[in-house]
Amino acid sequence: MSATNGNGTHQNKPKLREEWIARRRAHAASTGDSNLSQMHYARKGLITEEMLYVAEREKLTPELVREEVASGRMIIPANVNHPELEPMAIGVASLCKINANIGNSAITSNVDEELRKLHTAVHFGADTVMDLSTGGGIREIREAVIRNSPVPIGTVPIYEAVSRVKRIEDLSADLMLEVIEEQAQQGVDYMTIHAGVLVQYLPLISKRITGIVSRGGAILAQWMAHHHKQNFLYERFDDITKVLKKYDVSYSLGDGLRPGCIADASDEAQFSELRTLGELTTKAWEHDVQVMIEGPGHVPLDKIKEQVDKEVEWCHSAPFYTLGPLVTDIAPGYDHITSAIGAAMIGWHGAAMLCYVTPKEHLGLPNEKDVKDGIIAYKIAAHAADIARHRPGAQDRDNALSYARYTFDWDKQFALSLDPETARSMHDETLADDYYKEAKFCSMCGPKFCSMNYSQKVDEFNKQVYGIEKKDYSHLVEKIAAGK
Known about the structure:
Elements lengths: L2 E2 L5 E2 L6 H14 L6 H6 L5 H10 L3 H10 L2 E2 L14 E2 L5 E6 L8 H13 L4 E4 L6 H10 L5 E3 L1 H7 L9 H14 L3 E4 L21 H13 L4 H4 L1 H11 L2 E4 L14 H18 L5 E5 L8 H11 L5 E4 L11 H15 L3 E3 L12 H21 L7 H11 L3 H7 L3 H9 L22 H16 L7 H8 L3
Parallel strand pairs: 5-6, 5-12, 6-7, 7-8, 8-9, 9-10, 10-11, 11-12
Antiparallel strand pairs: 1-2, 3-4
Helix pairs in contact: 3-4, 5-6, 5-15, 7-8, 8-11, 13-14, 14-15, 16-17, 16-20, 17-18
């Protein structure tokens, strides 16, 4: 992340992709081909440096990455104006990713606070970050976030457009295109565009308990209801696409009619929009613009697989990016838990990226601690999904930590955990002395009731009597603890 220099200003991250982008721009200028998208190169049979980087990170072959990007099953969000980015992939062939939302509101937050949230999100493992600022200084905050972020940055451009008009009714397609171009020039890697909320779908929400819960969807619905006109994002979709392909900005086609409670899940409004998003996906692909599809929301456990199956069918296997889903609505203050349950399940069934939910969901603007709590909950969910999908090597860290636990290697157990500081502090609440880092028990069982201590005696018996050696995972422990 960024450092702070002597005068208190933030120093931007190194520009990993600067030379790659310069060569690509020079080639585009010489050929007259202004499409700089990863999908465009992949479909031409070319493997970019970003694809090579992703292949190494994901332990995939470069050709597989190229094929997945060319088909639309994988995206590499990497705006040519975000050279600080360390490329990553979102797709069913890669590890399940998580997104963290940050951003100010009209009530609170500033640049320094948002940069602290960004640092916390990236430190604890967010794969992408969305800046959802709606208050003052939107452009200033976004510039600071992009310049200091090694992960892709997403936005919802309609938020900034709304800040430029007096009333929702004053929004226009031209204003939206202006905002989209400005954000693309700034370096935004993917944008949520709610082009699937159509005027003919508005009557379908009348049966819902919570109506429209997407801010972007509700803004557009109000605009359409006032003007009795079609969604201008839908009507000008090709114009938006032409902007995105110049900078390699990926679409995150927004689910403006997502269910806001489990009673509204899988209704006609939600699925009508999803079909439209499939139509728009093919239109974007005609220009070689990368696409992922946003999904719910609030969905009971028994309806989660259906969400993935319909998205794969109707949206042609474009990566599915879901908010949760929350599987029950009764736990305000704990919705990072109610949603992580659904997130793990939908990731298992094939969602490519999970948008985190913090404990503050439905209650207020998340602070730095809320961001951390949401990230940890979703790292668990995504990792659980990868294990269930039998990703190569996904379970190695679990096996290493379990072996460290079995051998009472407390320091390695802490190091291998998602949040070493918390794990260590909880152990040390009752057994703080360094002496206890060598102890073959914790404060739960004490020295006389530790089952694994006794089990090790059985290991010795099996070795002496039957010649059976306990499998040794110590090499795996050292390897993973060293970050290899």
